[in-house]
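Reply to dn_fold:

You asked what the input looked like. This is it:
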Amino acid sequence: MKKVVYIIPGGGESHKRQKGYNKIAKMFEEKGITPIHVEIEWEDRKKSQNFSNYFDQFLKVFKKEKGTQIYILGFSFGAMIAYLTASKTKPKAFILCSLSPYFEEDMEKTIKVSWVKRWRKAFVDSYSFAKFVSKVKSETYLLVGDKEDKSVLIRSKEAKKKIKYSRLTIIKGVKHNIGQKEYQEAIKKLINKL
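and this is what came back:
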């Protein structure tokens, strides 16, 4: 059976600029899973953005072929894109790395966190985590660093509670950086279990 993984980078990132994504792609290749890098044209953070444009860009790249086992790995905003497109993609498994805390439910808890407030203001649209959770029927692996902002940890823990087939890994000594050695090692362990 053919196996494919879509790799969606974090906000403002690309596999062309961050080597961590290429290392992850190589890990998948070693397990016989073909990586497909998703290039998102991230907009200027200072301008208003429509988040749905980002998942439209992903869905243009996404192909569901009969007899193909699909995985989707997303980091930060990339994880949010993966989650919000669950009803259309229905992969074998999601790997949501450092899921962004930008859902409607997060705003009340993180309103005092300046970077969340600043980023959230940039988006025209908003999404409820709870509204989409019933659409996630795939196995879901959540990874988050223990040194990330508290709001990212809270979002990942709450996602674990709400997503039916989910597992959470909290990686020691890791910040919000998918290229960090410890983050890469945790992803490799996970890939080896797929």
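The chain has a mean pLDDT of 89.
Hope that clears it up.
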